[in-house]
Amino acid sequence: MKFFSKNNSFKGGVHPSEYKLLTSNLPIERLPNPEKIILPLSQHIGSPSIPLVAKKDEVTAGQLLAKENGAISVPIYSPISGKVLSLGIEDTTSSFAKEAITIQSTGNSEITPFPKLDVENISDTEIRERVKLAGIVGLGGAAFPTHFKLTPPKDKIIDYVILNGCECEPYLTRDYRLMIERPQDLIDGFKLIMKALNVQKGAIAIEDNKNDAFELLKDIVKYDQSISVIKLKTKYPQGAEKMIIKAILNREVPPGKLPIDVGVVIQNVATAISVYEAIYLGIPQTSATLTVSGLGIKTPKNLIVPIGTPLNDILEFCGGITEKAKRIVVGGPMMGITQHNLSAPVMKATSGILVLTEEEINQFEQTNCLRCGKCIEVCPLNLVPTRLAQLSKLEKLGEAEENGIFTCMECGTCAYICPANIPLVQWIASGKQKISKAKKAG
Amino acid sequence: MSENSLINSRFEIAKSPHIHSNWSTKQVMWLVIIALIPCIISSIIFFGIAQIMIIIVSVLFSIATEALIKTVRKQKITINDGSVIITGLLLALTLPPNFSLVSTAIGAIVAVGIGKEVFGGLGFNIFNPALVGRAFLQAAFPVSITTWTNPNFIDGISSATPLSLMKFDNKFEPINSLFFGNVSGSLGETSAIAILIGGIFLLATGVINYRIPLAMVLSATIFGGIFWLINPTNYPNPLFHLFAGGFLFGAVFMATDWVTSPLYAKGMWIFGITIAIVVILIRLFGGLPEGVMYSILLLNGFVPLINKYTKPQIFGREK
After folding, report:
1. Closest listed residue to residue B186, CA positions, set B61, B292, B60
2. Domains of chain A: which residue ranges?
3. Which of A44, A142, B136, B296 is surrounded by the most beta carbons within 10 Å?
4. Closest chain A residue to B20, measured at CA
5. Residues in chain B with pLDDT values less than 50
């Protein structure tokens, strides 16, 4: 097995301190309903949804508040009953202010489910329709509309589906908790995903630091030939799509291409739970399961919260933040986004809220690049981060593009390791922005 | 509203990642300094406590040169990152025992001034600064830099190094003396075991990569071995090449210098292999008994070219 697991990985990567023990043994708790929720119209990749309610409207839990706008878009449902306070621009956790519906709660969150489906005899079209109706987005981070991913173009042949349970970001334990608390729901959801895609072979990928989840899921599918549970090396960014596909199938997704171009669809384990809930229980995606952690929060927790819940309510429920709190991050520590406004809301794909202290951030004074090559050694995509950052700094944008700046997924591995503490990801991201801007202008 | 909260926020706004490894420039430099301690000890054991003066003078003048240049150029003084201390130590350890302290100081000034600061300081220099200083001294004081004192265990004022014995007298020093270091030679270069301890420490802590030292060792073994097999009475065996002169010291501490060695895996192999070939050629056929310094400096000059042609293939891109 050791020998085997050696193959199940990718080149490069890093091993940051996990800090998963802060929350890995804590069952998912339900947050009491917040007084007010803020629902941005764009909680997904694609066009923002179109609002269907007006100020002062009374809404009930499960009511459709905004409908999808085109193929790459999703509807949004109200997680609670209440009254529309406003429709306007609000700060969100995604670093941009967006149009949002704000609702004053009346306390009820009982959702009237969608009509029951005959799950035994359900067709692939019915699954996709229901996933679309339920407004499900991928919960791995990108928040891509799931129904769209389940409808690949005719010319792409999909032969493999991977359910991503790697959870390679430090601190986060949402996926782990879902895997051990709801393994059967997860497998049922995964089977629906496979059925929607008409694919016979699927794998659940789990890093070897979550052995109990691995054993549990493996036991459930032991008589099922179509699903295998695969243990991968614990290494960041093992959960990145390209890295998982490389580790499991030894296929490489070319720069600028997607997993479907090599015949693979990847879904997060939490997304499989959403699919299960939409089809078995008839519930739309109106809540987010997430990890609240970091050394700057008094009582770290795994929570299930209504979407739209302001960060403040959640942090308060977790005992509040300590004096030492220095950064509030939504997402994981490697790719998450820092927050300045704690009234910004949790969105569908929010997987974690971290309150980090100086000790964890561990930032040193920046020095010149020492050409140590560590960033190159760890880059999972074989890029030369130090060069890309330099080209971006010097505004040699053409050369940056030739050197693969858009292949960079900003996983942060390079900046994490850099002894000179150069903000490599920041430079690369700004280089990408400059190129995109120039292309738009010219 | 959002603008106000931005100003009032006590929380940092920063681009990911929000955590960092323990690697820092300062930490790395101090690890290298620690790795050099066995060599410093061996130089004192074999050549006497007086040699500490050469080390002190070299380090102090290195520091002073950097401080002076940074002050004149109105740049931040970065001595506490430790890199200039390494330059001073490396230079001192490549000098012969009882070398003139004045010359040592001059060497240190050249190493830091011309080897490093002229290029813009840490990270920008093309050539290994310590070797630049050493090369300057070799050119300026060719006699005193090749005047070798015997180690303490053997009485005598001056003697030939194992490499000059090999070159000019066709005599080969026994390998076990080379291994422990009680032969004549540069301060820190004679004791293979001291260098290996430092090298293992650097490998274990991840400061240096195995590729360059391994490439050098393998290449010298094979290339030197070929000549030995052809004519064992004229040419020394490969172990002699590895343990004599500055080969190991160069492989562990000089050729692995981050700033002046190649960036990519393939380039590191090419760099290491070529250095060792040039060393063997100089030792066996050149005018000088030793060639480690010149071959590393020569290959330093090729690093940009090596980097250009050894860039890794981007993940998923067609070959």
Report:
1. B292
2. 2-24+115-281, 374-441
3. A44
4. A416
5. 1-8, 156
Residue A242 contacts B, CB cutoff 8 Å: yes
Encode pLDDT of B39-57 as tens digits.
999 999 999 999 999 999 9
The reply to whether residue A334 touches residue B16, judged by beta carbons under 8 angstroms, is yes
- Adjacency order of strands within the sheet including A76-77: A50-51, A64-67, A76-77
The reply to whether the predicted model has a pTM over 0.80 is yes
Residue B309: which residues within 8 A CB-CB, separation 6 or more? B267
- The reply to whether B319 falls in a domain is no
Q: Which residues in chain B touch residue A416, judged by CB atoms under 8 angstroms apart?
A: 17, 19-21
Please say whether the beta carbons of B277 and B257 come within 8 A.
no
Is B184 part of any domain?
yes
Q: What does the buried/exposed string (b/e) look like for B225-264 if buried means 16 or more CB atoms within 10 Å of the residue's CB?
A: bebbeeeeeebbbbbbbbbbbbbbbbbbbbbbbbbbbbbb
CB contact under 8 A, B18 and A327: yes
Q: What are phi and psi of A84, to 5 degrees?
A: -70, 115
Find the CATH number of the domain harbouring B211.
1.10.3430
CA–CA gap between residue A363 and residue B260 (Å, rounded): 26
Question: Would you give the DSSP letter of residue A137?
Answer: B
Facing residue for A338 by CB, picked from B5, B13, B312: B13
Give per-residue pLDDT as tens, B254-285: 999 999 999 999 999 999 999 999 999 999 99
Measured CA to CA, the distance from residue A87 to residue A51 in angstroms comes to 9
Contacts with B, A 22-61, CB within 8 Å: none
- Dihedral sign (CA A9, A10, A15, A21): negative
pLDDT (0 to 100) of residue B5: 44
Cβ contacts of B5 on chain A, cutoff 8 Å: 91, 340-341, 343
- Does the residue B2 lie in any domain? no
Q: State the CATH class of domain A2-24+115-281.
A: alpha beta
Cα–Cα nearest to B293, from B158, B74, B94: B94
The distance of B15 to chain A (nearest Cα, Å) reads 6
Contact B26 A364 (CB under 8 A): yes
CA distance A384 to chain B (A): 8
Q: With an 8 Å Cβ cutoff, are A429 and B313 in contact?
A: no
Q: Does the model's ipTM exceed the 0.90 cut?
A: yes
| Residues contacting A318, CB < 8 A, separation 6+ | A292, A297, A298, A299, A300, A301, A303
- Whether B28 and A368 have beta carbons less than 8 Å apart is answered as no
A254–B15: do the CB atoms touch at under 8 Å? no
Q: Which domain holds residue B81?
A: 25-309
Q: Which chain A residues are within 8 Å of B13, Cβ to Cβ?
A: 338, 340
In a domain, B16, yes or no: no
Helix (H) or strand (E) holding A186: helix A183-197
The answer on pLDDT for A95 being more than 90 is: no
